[in-house]
Each structure stands twice: as structure tokens, then as C-alpha cells.
Specification:
single chain, 481 residues, alpha/beta, Rossmann fold, Helicase, Ruva Protein, domain 3, five-stranded parallel beta sheet, 19 helices, 16 strands, globular
């Protein structure tokens, strides 16, 4: 069996020799180059399991090689060697498509761990295609066939091949941990541990011991040696959920652990190497936290190398039917329960401030009231929801007032006091009536802004993406000029 071949690109002869000796001892074949030109020539002749390049070369920058390999040799991971303290270079390389990075002086333990991760990636990529692999898109925990969800799953598959830290953003209940688990499951680390930590649930006094472990006798109650989260996730993935809740002293310690890839247990005198892929998640805006001084800027840049945004459920309401079916199959394993068309329409008109988690809670509650295996609108018990200044349809209202005159944002509200209403005053189809009202409101906003969709979205108090979705759903098109 042919040994994997590694390409080392560095203009320092001593470092090249050290890297070559270390890799050969690992049973690998090694080619060396001292310039970008010679590296390109070797890449044209051979297939490599890993390319390792310095960032500064006599005839150019290593990041140029990173971009070329990421574009022309998609199955070949490339890692960079950066000067000590050059965090910006490392982040730039990761964003350009680098698999990982090493800092000078190069630690041989870190080198070996990185090479092993790269080789696992190669084996994983060649084992099966996404179509016939259980780790492909079809095995994703994130359901939905909307364009935004298809794009999200494709991003996850691409991110899984890298070691770059990922920052997942999204509202509470939007599925951030599911996305993190998908990244891990699609990666070469899938067989290793996935450890999820809620940073806001750990008392500050215990954080260092929980993250890095402790030695026996380090403090009162430390009766045995214990590993921390980093050691538990060694070789796998560590997810830092609600990372914005970390206190500043712990942020300093976490930054050092990320930079050095070594941790020191409480009460220990030496550090130990760890090989961990970091994924962070928060519902807060980390950039704003940096501006307020509650989150360190240097840690922000280390964690936010690649940002993955999860859309709220109200931006992909077309997925609710499939999601509800999946959830009902799990919630009612003894018997098949379905949504009535009216109940599905009601859910698709609901804003879901609690996102997917709220959808699951609504369905679980509805199961307790549903009869005959069918969930009706009344079983959902949907309540009016106000989300900031954004107008929301109130599904339980029996009658609605006409929209207010522009420029005031119209809001549909129930009559202040219930009154007897003749049957011929009621709309024949509530969903169709509400769609007509919403269509008219959006058309008026677009007319007022001369069809400037950005300004119209601001006028209505919704995002541009939400306006675009509603225009597509309601068949609102720009008039021919």
C-alpha cells in the first residue's frame, strides 16, 4: 500500500529538514519545495494528502498557494505555518480555505496531531460520496427543503472539512446545537467525542476546573484527578454554547488554550496538548459585545473565523409542513397523527418567536387535545404574538379592523369587545382573507417607497429577507417600467 504523500513548502532549510524527518518517521512520503514556483510544479505532478506551507516565501505569499489549492485541488487539505504572534495571518489563511495552521516555533506534537487529522479527512472524503454516505446531506438533523436550508446544509458539508473555528449565530431555539452536531458528524472527527458546554450555566468560580480539569488536592473537594471539557473532547469537537456569557477572566484563559492548543489543569505545573475543533454559538451579537467591552476582541477574531447564521423559523415557513410531520412521528410513535390543512395554514401564518423549539412545544401540547388522529386549529391554541414593532397577524381574532392609513404601519387587532356577527360578514376563508390584507399592506408600502424593497421593509418593521419571502408567497411582482 502506497504511503500518503505530503508536500512541505518552506524557504528555511533547517525547518524543512525538521519537518521532513518528523513526517518520514510517521511513515509518510515527503516532497519539499522552497518557492511557490517549485510547489506549483510538484502539485501539477502528484496528488498529495496534505500541503504544508510557510506564509512568507521568496517569490510570494503562502496564502496565494492556499487559494490555488482550495480552488484547483479541492480534496487536498492545506495548512500554513505562521510566525509567532501572527494571529491575523492565521485567521486570513483559514478564511481563504486553509485546513489548519501551525505557529513558529513549530511544536512537533501539534504537527503530528494536525497531520493525523488531515489524513482522517482524506480517508473520509474517499470512503463514500454524500449521496450514499450516512454522513451526507440526507442524514442532516436540520430538516427543510427551502432554499435557505439547502444552502445551509451545503455550507455545513464544506465547513466540516476544515479545522477553522466556526461561530454559529441565530435566535434561541433555531437549532444551533443541531448545526454544530451536523458539522461534527460530517467531519473526519465523527467517530470522536462531541462535547457541548453551556457557558452560561457554569459558576464562574468553577469554570477553569470544568474547562481544563484539575489535579488531586488542587482545592478542597478535589479528591481525584479529573479531566476537563478540553480533554474530554480531545480528537473531537468542543461546542461552546452561549459563549458571550463567559466572564472576561475566563476569556483570557480560553484564548491562550486556543492559541497554544495546550491546557494546564488546576494544580498542575505542566501543560498538555489537546486536539480540539472549536465551535461557538450565541444568540447575542458578539460584535456589539466587543464594542461594549464585555467580550475580548482578540478572542472574537479567534472564534469568529467562519460565521454560520441559522435563519429563524419565520424566514422559512414553507418548511413547517415537513418539520411538523417529522416532529409528530417522533412525538406520537404509537399512532399516526396528522395536521389538518387549516392547522397547517395557521402554523404557516404564525411568527414563532421561539423558533423550532416552540413549534415542537405547540405540537406536543396539541397532541394532548387532538381527537381522531387529526390536529385542528383549535388544538394548536396559538396566541397573538408581538415581536418588537413588527406587525403580526393574530390568528385567534374573530374579526379584524381595516388597515390604518399610511404612513402608520397597519396592525390587525381584534375588536375590543366581542359582538354578535352575522355569518355573511365573516370571510369564507380566513387564511385567504389575511393573505389579501397582508398583500394590500405590502403593496401600499412598496408604492410609497417607489418599489424600493429595502425602504419598504424598514417602513413595515421587517427584514429585507422577510419582505422578499412574503412577496414571493403572495405573488407580488415589480410593475413593468
Amino acid at each position: 500500500m502506497t504511503a500518503p504523500r505530503i508536500l512541505v513548502v518552506d524557504d528555511e532549510a533547517d525547518l524543512r529538514e525538521l519537518l521532513e524527518i518528523t513526517l518520514v518517521k510517521m511513515g509518510l512520503d515527503v516532497d519539499c519545495a522552497d518557492t511557490l514556483g517549485s510547489a506549483r510544479a510538484l502539485l501539477a505532478q502528484h496528488e498529495y494528502a496534505l500541503v504544508l506551507t510557510d506564509m512568507r516565501l521568496p517569490d510570494g505569499l503562502g496564502i496565494e498557494l492556499v487559494r490555488e489549492v482550495a480552488t484547483n485541488h479541492k480534496n487536498t487539505p492545506i495548512a500554513v505555518i505562521t510566525a509567532f504572534g501572527s494571529a491575523d495571518n492565521a485567521v486570513a489563511a483559514l478564511k481563504a480555505g486553509a485546513f489548519d495552521y501551525l505557529s513558529k516555533p513549530v511544536g512537533l506534537d501539534q504537527l503530528r496531531l494536525m497531520v493525523q487529522s488531515a489524513l482522517r479527512t482524506q480517508k473520509t472524503d474517499g470512503a463514500a460520496s454524500p449521496a450514499d454516505s450516512p454522513r451526507g446531506e440526507g442524514a442532516s438533523r436540520l430538516t427543510g427543503r427551502s432554499v435557505v436550508m439547502q444552502d445551509l446544509r451545503a455550507q455545513i458539508v464544506r465547513l466540516a472539512r476544515s479545522m477553522a473555528p466556526v461561530a454559529i449565530t441565530g435566535e434561541s431555539g433555531s437549532g444551533k446545537e443541531l448545526a454544530a452536531r451536523d458539522i461534527h458528524a460530517h467531519s473526519a472527527r465523527a467517530e470522536k467525542p462531541f462535547i457541548a458546554v453551556n457557558c452560561g450555566a457554569i459558576p464562574e468560580a468553577l469554570m477553569e476546573a470544568e474547562f481544563f480539569g484539575y489535579r488531586k488536592g488542587a482545592f478542597t473537594g478535589a479528591n481525584d484527578d479529573r479531566d476537563g471539557f478540553f480533554q474530554a473532547a480531545n480528537g473531537g469537537t468542543l461546542m461552546l454554547d452561549e459563549v458571550a456569557d463567559l466572564p472576561l477572566p475566563m476569556q483570557v484563559k480560553l484564548l491562550r488554550a486556543i492559541q497554544e492548543r495546550r491546557v494546564r489543569k488546576v494544580g498542575a505545573t505542566v501543560e498538555e496538548p489537546v486536539d480540539v475543533r472549536l465551535i461557538s454559538a450565541t444568540h447575542q451579537n458578539l460584535s456589539e459585545c466587543v464594542e461594549k467591552g464585555s467580550f475580548r476582541q482578540d478572542l472574537f477574531y479567534r472564534l469568529n473565523v467562519i460565521e454560520l447564521r441559522l435563519p429563524p423559523l419565520r424566514e422559512r415557513l414553507e418548511d413547517i409542513g415537513e418539520m411538523a410531520e417529522t416532529l409528530l412521528e417522533r412525538l406520537s410513535p404509537d399512532g399516526r397523527v396528522i395536521l389538518s390543512p387549516q392547522a397547517l395554514q395557521a402554523l404557516q401564518s404564525y411568527p414563532f418567536p421561539g423558533n423550532v423549539r416552540e413549534l415542537e412545544n405547540i405540537l406536543e401540547r396539541a397532541l394532548a387535545f387532538a381527537g381522531g388522529g387529526v390536529i385542528e386549529v383549535s388544538d394548536l391554541a396559538l396566541k397573538p404574538v408581538t415581536m418588537g414593532e413588527q406587525p403580526r397577524v393574530q390568528l385567534e381574532a374573530k374579526t379584524v379592523e381595516p388597515p390604518l392609513a399610511a404612513p402608520t404601519i397597519p396592525v390587525l387587532q381584534p375588536d375590543p369587545a366581542p359582538q354578535a356577527v352575522a355569518d355573511n360578514d365573516l370571510p369564507r376563508s380566513l387564511p385567504e382573507h389575511l393573505d389579501n390584507v397582508e398583500r394590500e399592506i405590502i403593496r401600499r408600502a412598496l408604492a410609497k417607497t417607489h418599489f424600493n424593497r429595502t425602504q419598504a421593509a424598514e417602513l413595515l418593521g421587517i427584514s429585507f429577507r422577510q419582505l422578499r419571502y412574503r412577496m414571493q408567497r403572495l405573488s407580488i411582482h415589480e410593475p413593468d417600467s
